[in-house]
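[Meeting: bench + compute handoff]

Bench side (C.D.) handed over the final construct sequence. Compute side (W.E.) agreed to return the predicted structure before the next meeting so the bench team could plan truncations. Sequence as handed over:
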Amino acid sequence: MKKLIIPVLLVGVLAGLGWLVWFKPVNSAEEEKKPEPLVPVHVGKIVRATLRNYVTAYGVVEPEPTASARLAVGVPGIVTEVHCVEGQLVAQDAVLFELDGRAAEVAVQFAQKTLERQKRLIQTEGTSLKLLQEAEQQWANARAQQALLQIRAPLSGTVTRVNVKRGEAADLTSVLAEIVDLDRLVISLNIASAETALLKTGQAVDVGTTDSTNHFSTSLSFIGAQLDPKTGAGIARAGIVPNSGLRPGQFIRARVVTEERKDRLVVPVASVAKDATGATFIAVVEGEKAVLKPVRVGLRNEGWIEVEGEGVAVDQPVVTEGAYGLIMTQQFATRIRVVGE
């Protein structure tokens, strides 16, 4: 009996498999075809723009090398008069300080009397021409020493510091005051050694304060020939227009335009994606699909990047956010769903 049951079970299993093969209903082509998924993306446009390459540097505002001065005495003495205060505008050659001149006045009067006496004697041949010349020289020297007691402004500008008061002694090392011509300021920039070779005088400079309260454009006026041995940085200067609102010592951020490319095709930086081999692509929107286009990239600036390639033209819509996802699909063209611009 057992021998009979086993063959019967085998026959039943084979019959069931045969039914599944021959009599199972066949699905239609429409049922077999799966819907192609839509990839959500953001889009932008290919536009024409001017791109610039920059060297970013930081520095401070300071006077031009010839636009500031520290006042000192020519002879030691006691300060008897102070004719300036901090913040005062002064003209060149204005008297700002006076030293005690009593001894100098006595010396001038004595030399003058000696000179007058020699002039009278020369008329009667009671003296020599040499003695007259010596008297004239002594009088000139006494007047010159007297003139040193008045400290004058070597340039027109603003008094930024006064360091002495009346009655104080001043020697040859004393700095009485400082004057700055605030209409002749420059920005002294520290430039990394690797970037100094990119700079040229006349290049445009975009200047801004660190708190973004002041912004203007200028140009490079000087590039130093030496590097700081400690930091490896170079020095460059850019002029500041008068009435810029900047003051000496103010910290500045600047961008020097080292390259400019006009009228170039650019796309948002997010539009450019790379595949596994490092090749760069953008996805151009054509109808309901995004088509991958190989491109060469150039300058990147302010969120835009230069592109060049076959079939790439101005005003074409391109995928921005989502471009990398299209690369990962490994398809030349992919159906998309635009969710934003």
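W.E. noted at the follow-up: Residues 39-50+263-340 form a domain with the conserved putative lor/sdh protein from methanococcus maripaludis s2 fold fold (CATH 2.40.420.20). C.D. will use this when planning the next construct.
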